[in-house]
Design goal:
This protein has 3 helices and no strands. With about 80 residues, it is mainly α. The chain has one domain. α2 packs antiparallel against α3. The longest helix has 28 residues. The radius of gyration is 20 Å and the shape is elongated.
Length: about 80
């Protein structure tokens, strides 16, 4: 019954590095989104700020949010399978 207890280190060879890369990218994207959100909030309270810049930042924030949703979807396994 050795197949029930694989050798130590054998499990390390089976780690899905793509999943870890996806998790890291998701974490970095969330951090970028949060930082951009904070910047937009600060700029929104400044009456002298260029509104075109704020709109561009909001568009970038929306793109990051879409990317977060896509990455989360890729990391969640299909339940139909």
């Amino acid at each position: 019954m050795q197949w029930l207890h694989p050798e130590p280190g054998l499990m390390n060879d089976k780690i899905d590095t793509e999943s870890f890369k996806g998790l890291n990218l998701l974490r970095q994207t969330r951090i970028s989104h949060r930082n951009l959100n904070d910047l937009i909030d600060r700029l929104s309270h400044d009456p002298l700020v260029d509104q075109l810049r704020v709109r561009r930042l909001k568009k970038k924030r929306l793109l990051l949010k879409d990317m977060i949703i896509r990455l989360e979807s890729e990391l969640i396994p299909d339940l139909d399978a």
